[in-house]
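Let us walk through a complete example step by step. Step one is to write down the protein sequence. Step two is to encode the small molecule, magnesium ion, as a SMILES string so that its atoms and bonds are unambiguous. Step three, shown after the inputs, is the structure prediction itself.
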Amino acid sequence: MEPNRETLAITVDKSHLITIGEKLYTQSIELIRELVNNAYDADASVVEVEITEDRIVIKDNGSGMDLKGLKQYFNIGSPEKKYHPKSPKFKRDRIGQFGIGKFATLSACGSFTVSTQSRDFAAEVVFDKEEWGESEDNWHLPMTTLSYEASRGDGTTITLSKLTKKFNIEDVEERLIEGVPIRDKDFAVYLNGKRVMSRELPGRRFPVIEGTPYGPIHGEIVILPSAQTTTSEPLGIECKVKQVTVKREYFGMDTWGRDMARVRGLIYADFLPVTTDRSGFIVDSEEYKAFYGAMLKVMEDVKAYL
Ligand SMILES: Nc1ncnc2c1ncn2[C@@H]1O[C@H](COP(=O)(O)OP(=O)(O)OP(=O)(O)O)[C@@H](O)[C@H]1O
Ligand SMILES: [Mg+2]
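Step three: the predicted structure of the complex.
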């Protein structure tokens, strides 16, 4: 008998979107990093983060989105930034890569609004969790086109309402210092009106420049003066991909006893593959193994100095 060939459709349940937003990120505070980094990728020079009792607003003066851009925004898992890894205006190395970061908002709110203006287009789109759950097969969101106002300037504002989580401003500031490119001279981030600035640790600095078959590792290791070891700065060495701290690593320092408390550092390795929530590395990748091996050698010198 001839085999009867048919096809079987793959379907995605509507609720999966909410699951991604609510369950992918270990901490909902990470949504702020995701949204600010989207602004960086869109060539914004200023991002204002406003956190109040009932709203979180993240406003940027980046390129904004036209209709095509908005469709792009609501595409799940778009590899757009993999194909266009540099931003057009500032030629930034774009941070985004997975096409899901915007849904991190869903971990802390019941509803978010995207308002955007780009060239001659302006519009507002609302994603409301409850409305999304109402029907099984309507995948459309309400969109209002607005009149273009030159005085407003191009850019995007994301407003979270019906908040389900409260954030401490100091915690948000910490996250911003580590998680967004505030060291870039063309990028200023304000939190409730105050500019977020990077910190410099005092101490002896060891520059790090190492090559691996996958790309360079660079940065510095800082040895704090012994009196400074009680700094509130968390232990370990910040490992950054595209200026975003993914993880603090010890590189074997956990066996160093008290000396470990004196060592900090910032290491940049843009070639490292990261997990989709940007909170860890793919540790069984060849890239990570090469990175870890090179860093162990660096740390031997640091240990000898100590
Ligand atoms: N503030 C913004 N200004 C202009 N375009 C934006 C903005 N935020 C998002 N976008 C557009 O929406 C798309 C989706 O954003 P999203 O954060 O979900 O994915 P991504 O940044 O591409 O990848 P990742 O999941 O790694 O963050 C982006 O690729 C970009 O085209
Ligand atoms: Mg993103």
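Step four is interpretation. The mean pLDDT is 95.
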